[in-house]
Amino acid sequence: MVASIMSKYIVFTDLDGTLLDRNTYAFDKTLPYLEGLKNRGVPVVFCSAKTRAEQEIYRKISGIRDPFIVENGNAVFIEDNYFDFRYPHDQEREGYWVLEYGVSYQLIREALQGVRSAIGVDFVGYGDLSTVEVASATGLEIKEAELAKRREYEETITTQFEALDLEKLQQALHSRGLRFTRGGRFFSVSSHTDKGRAVQSLSMLFRRAYGSIITIGIGDSWNDVSMLSLVDIAFLVQQPGETWEEIDLDRVIKVDGVGPLGWVNIAKHLLERV
């Protein structure tokens, strides 16, 4: 076990609209500061709606090897030699120990098909779209869109609903034990889990490894609330228009700067303290 006299910072960060530009997905502005945190020994945990395949690209570019949380908290992937102790996990595959909280993507797709038939509201998810169509809807490059379609636990719904249809869909999903959340641009459907549960589990492992820790959360939208509510210090960056998402969390610190610019301001602050 790693011993530490001082508390160790652990950063949990959203990706789209936070570490990454909401529209271009670029992180050229944040990358130097991300590398700075890595070089100072600060673990940075990606906590995003993005798939494992998508996040692995950003991990490779940045050299980050810390655990990461995929598809809005449905699973945590931890390199198999990351911690020097054993801990409960659900799977060991492709060099990862995996903590799973959600059901499979196939089961989610089957449930959604049943909901379509039951309520008579049509909608489109990534599984209904070609790679080219996902690229068109998201602004991703073709290769990136292919990675976004490699979903393991959660479906992304790209349809924009009228208020009545949206309410019917939410009720139908809830009655089937499914969770329906709005992200920065689209909706997500999964079993009842969220980013917070994954953050809580990982925090326990980090605390076991380092003893005293201080957890930092960085997000931009209300689907980050479960993460932000369970960290010691919660930051909210601005959305386009230089406004902050209206979320019901009194202790969140609102930071100037849209997306990556706000992230950089937070990272600068942290780097002065480690």
Low-confidence parts, pLDDT < 50 over ≥5 residues? none
- Provide a count of the helices: 9
For the record, the CATH class of the largest domain is: Alpha Beta
The CATH architecture term of the largest domain is: 3-Layer(aba) Sandwich
Instruction: Name the shape in a single word.
Output: globular
Briefly note the CATH topology name of the largest domain: Rossmann fold
- Going across the biggest sheet, name each strand in turn: 5-6-4-3-2-1-10-11-12
pLDDT averaged residue by residue:
93
Structural class: alpha/beta
Tally the beta strands: 12
Helix content: 25-40%
At the fourth CATH level, what is the homologous superfamily of the largest domain?
Answer: HAD superfamily/HAD-like
- Main beta sheet, described? 9 strands, mixed
Q: Strand share of the residues?
A: 15-25%
**Succession of helices and strands:** EHEHEEEEHHHEHEEHEHEEH
Taking all Cα atoms into account, the compactness measure Rg is: 18 Å
